[in-house]
Amino acid sequence: MDYTALITGASKRIGKAIAEFLAGKGWNIVIHFNDSEEPAKELQSALREKYPQQKFVRIKADLSVEGEVEQLTSRVVDEIGGFNLLVNNASVFSSGYLKETDLSLFDMQMNVNLKAPFLLMRDFATHCKKGNIVNFVDTRIATNKSNYAAYSLSKKGLWELTKMAALEFAPEIRVNAIAPGVTLPPEDKGQNYLLNLAKNIPMKRPGGLEPILKSLDFILENDHLTGQLLFADGGENLGMNL
Does the UniProt entry include the keyword Oxidoreductase (predicted)? Predict the structure, then answer.
């Protein structure tokens, strides 16, 4: 049986790593992207060359525009047929304390990080009817720090949505979440930025991509797991080890 995954934000960073990981396990991949068309093309070409028996398609959609989100699942089904796994990986990550957050910042974080996953999960349940959903939240959901107020709130909401959907969609669809911590530096920062951040977490080092991929593998292989959250964060959710 063919297995197909739709990964949002799949052309770069964590999304790209997930696409490569699943492709290596025999999955067909739908590479969603918005602005990163060239990286999406490069990833598609590389995967097609490495795994010629599998299917790799790319689909553009702006997750901040609800009309494009509402069309995305049906476009995937038309392009490649039903799919078995939805990975809500794409997100926007913008700083701002509560007092600094204007309406445009708030709406962008909520639209991409919470509303889009909500609509995609709804449509996956309607169109695909069985399989797995994996939502990417953030270790910040364990705290009440407000320096990324709207972002953190959107991810807290996504975790609550994960549990709600797990209950409603069972047993045909399992819904779980992964919360990364210090994983990759921002695109404008280097490895030293990560090393400094990691000094105060229990494991004292950045995790990189491997803990995330192992967490995803565990979720997919454990067919009695639903409504759960795996912190792939080196213990950061426990608090700072000063």
Answer: yes
Residue 172 CB burial class (10 angstroms; 0-12, 13-18, ≥19): exposed
* Residue position matching structure tokens 């049906």: 74
Dist. CA 188–CA 198, nearest whole Å: 18
Distance CA 157, CA 106 (A): 13
Contacting residues for 175 by C-beta, under 8 A, at least 6 apart: 121, 132, 133, 134, 135, 162, 163, 165, 166, 169, 226, 227
Residue 147 in tokens = 């320096």
Query: 50 is in which domain, residue-wise?
Result: 4-238
State the amino acid at position 196 in one-letter form.
Answer: N
Reported as a single tens digit per residue, the pLDDT across 136-170 is 999 999 999 999 999 999 999 999 999 999 999 99
Cis-peptide, bond into residue 171, ω within 30° of zero: yes
pTM (2 d.p.): 0.96
**Domain containing 18 — which CATH number?**
3.40.50.720
Q: What confidence tens digit (pLDDT) does each residue in 33-66 have?
A: 999 999 999 999 999 999 999 999 999 999 999 9
Sheet of strand 56-60, all strands in order from the earlier edge strand to the far edge: 56-60, 28-33, 4-7, 85-88, 131-136, 173-180, 229-232
- CB 140, CB 95: distance < 8 Å: no
Return the C-alpha torsion angle 165, 171, 173, 175, nearest 10.
50
42's enclosing H/E stretch is helix 37-50
**β-pair partners for 175:** 133
